[in-house]
Structure formats: structure tokens, C-alpha cells
Design a protein that fits this description.
Length: about 300
């Protein structure tokens, strides 16, 4: 089923962190970050590495191909475990590289990842937007853009990490329709990344509509998702706080699986789980230490939407 692989990739790039910390540069606008008091930095880093290795093993066990790269911390890259922000891959052999808001995150871009993709997949073109950082323009990949690859729509919560000029340029080049909206949490703070509030599978979409600030736009987004033929699973603000929206549907050896954290799964209701299981199995990963950095499973996975060689 071709559509399945277009929306739900069977392979991923993931980065094993060796010096993981909760990045102080990104804490100002990432309400999901936290600090574990009274725990030495080396202990936190070691726990994050164990969680990472257990996660990739569980993904491999269900038949997902995981290309793992190590980050030994030579370049001070505390968020390197979240590679989905600095590049994305697309049908037709195209790869995009993105301008990052935090200076430390700009050091995450890696030549060896691009070379691996060229070696194992049919890469026709790499479009590099990263130079726009010098103009203070940012677009943090599939953190700020949640793609409906079937309908060719990019859902984007507007923030300083998602510049509308680059968004329009990207969507024109890659063939997506931008559907942007303002967001606000209980404190009126914009959501830093769209992928913490919504996820799109082949037959369902999970979204916290309450985070869309404008009621008219909220209805438009909901209707657009429903008109795609998907079941819309409405997430609460409390579930978003548990990373329920930060999930990714992938394809394993026995069909589609929704990869999410154990914390996220525990927050879902029986009715929500039943809707998901009509289309995909659930694959919970235990990553409580990694979640201290303000991202969860979706942020860890850079899906590969390229044709293998």
C-alpha cells in the first residue's frame, strides 16, 4: 500500500546522545522543559543513553529500520537527540535542511547523515535553508511543520521558530499547502513546536484544538483534517502536557505502529486508544529522562521518506 509508506515511514535517523542535558538556551520558550534536581549531570546523561538504546531496540524488534549516529558531545550539542528539527526527507528524493533558532542547535547538522542518506536511498537534491539563520529567519523542520503527506498540507503553529517567509518558500518548493495558525496555552504562551500538539497518521489525526487561539481557524483546521478522511482524536491540554501529541506513525514488518512514550500512552483514554488501534498498533517507549529536554518520541525520530537503493 503505497500511501502507507508515504505517510508512515519504515525507516528513521536517530542520534544517540552521550552528553545529554536539558538545553538552557531553549528553556525560555519551551514550556515542556524541566530539570531533575539533585541528580548529577553524568547520571542524567547515562540514563538518557540507556533509554535511547532501549527505544531503538524496541523499534527494531517491530521491523523499523533505524540508522543510528552517535553524538559524543565534542561540539556542545545538548539537543542532538532531536534530529527531526534540522532536516527532513521527502518523496521524490528530496531533502531539506533548516535554519535553527538556538545557536547550539545549529551545530547539530551533520555531513555524515547526508552521506548515509545518499548511499542508502535515492537522493536527488538537498535544499539547504540554513544560511537564513544569518538573517534571523528560522524554520525548525518537522518540529514546526506537521505534514499530511497524502493531502500535501503542512500544519504550522506560528512562532519565532517558524518564519512565514521561509515557510512559504519551503512549501512552494516542496509542493505543500501551508496551513498556519496562532497557538496559545493556558498562560497565553505560543506552543514552541507544532509537533507537541498534533500528529497525523494514515487514517487518524491527534490534535489539541484548544491550543489554536482563533475559534474560526480552529474549525478550519479540524474540518481540513476530517475532510482528508481521517478520524480526528481530540487531545486535552492535560494530555499535551504528557506529550500525547508528540507521536509518529511508522511502518513495521507487520503493519503500521504509532510510536509514542509510555507517559503519553498512559494519558490516552480507552476510547482514543481504540480509534488508533483500528489503524495501527501502539509502540510505547520509556524515555522519562529524555523528556526532561522538552521533547518526546516524535522529536527523536527523523523519518526517512526516501526510496531505498
Amino acid at each position: 500500500m503505497l500511501f502507507q509508506y508515504i505517510q508512515s515511514p519504515a525507516a528513521a535517523v536517530m542520534i544517540r546522545p552521550h552528553h545529554f542535558i536539558s538545553n538552557p538556551e531553549t528553556a525560555a520558550d519551551n514550556a515542556f522543559q524541566s530539570i531533575r534536581a539533585n541528580d548529577a549531570a553524568e547520571n542524567i546523561a547515562a540514563q538518557a543513553r540507556v533509554e535511547f538504546d532501549q527505544a531503538i531496540q524496541k523499534m527494531a524488534d517491530v521491523g523499523i529500520t533505524v540508522h543510528v549516529f552517535d553524538d559524543f558531545g565534542e561540539y556542545d550539542t545538548p539537543d542532538s537527540v532531536f534530529p527531526n528539527n534540522w532536516f527532513s526527507t521527502h518523496q521524490g528524493g528530496r531533502v531539506a535542511m533548516y535554519p535553527m533558532y538556538s545557536p547550539s542547535r545549529r551545530r547539530e547538522r551533520r555531513h555524515d547523515v547526508m552521506e548515509m542518506l545518499k548511499q542508502h536511498y535515492r537522493v536527488q537534491e538537498i535544499v539547504d535553508y540554513s544560511g537564513l539563520e544569518y538573517d534571523h529567519l528560522f524554520l525548525e523542520g518537522t518540529g514546526v511543520m506537521v505534514f499530511d503527506h497524502i493531502e500535501r498540507v503542512a500544519y504550522v503553529g506560528q512562532s519565532k521558530r517558524a518564519d512565514p517567509v521561509i515557510l512559504e518558500r519551503f512549501c512552494t518548493s516542496f509542493g505543500y499547502e501551508p496551513m498556519a495558525f496562532d497557538t496559545a496555552d493556558q498562560n497565553g504562551t505560543p506552543v514552541y513546536h507544532t509537533n507537541v500538539m498534533m500528529a497525523i497518521g494514515l487514517e487518524y489525526a491527534m490534535i489539541c484544538l484548544d491550543l489554536i487561539a482563533d475559534p474560526v481557524r480552529r474549525t478550519e483546521v479540524e474540518m481540513r483534517l476530517r475532510h482528508s478522511g481521517r478520524d480526528v482524536i481530540e487531545l486535552s491540554l492535560a494530555q499535551i502536557a504528557e506529550f500525547a501529541g508528540n507521536a509518529l506513525e511508522m511502518t513495521g514488518k507487520s503493519g503500521r505502529v504509532l510510536v509514542l512514550s509510555e507517559r503519553a500512552l498512559k494519558s490516552l483514554t480507552a476510547e482514543q486508544i481504540a480509534v488508533i488501534k483500528k489503524s495501527a498498533e501502539l509502540l510505547p517507549l520509556q524515555i522519562p529522562t529524555i523528556e526532561l529536554a522538552g521533547g518526546s518520541v516524535r522529536c527523536m525520530i527523523a523519518g526517512v521518506h526516501l526510496t531505498p537503493r
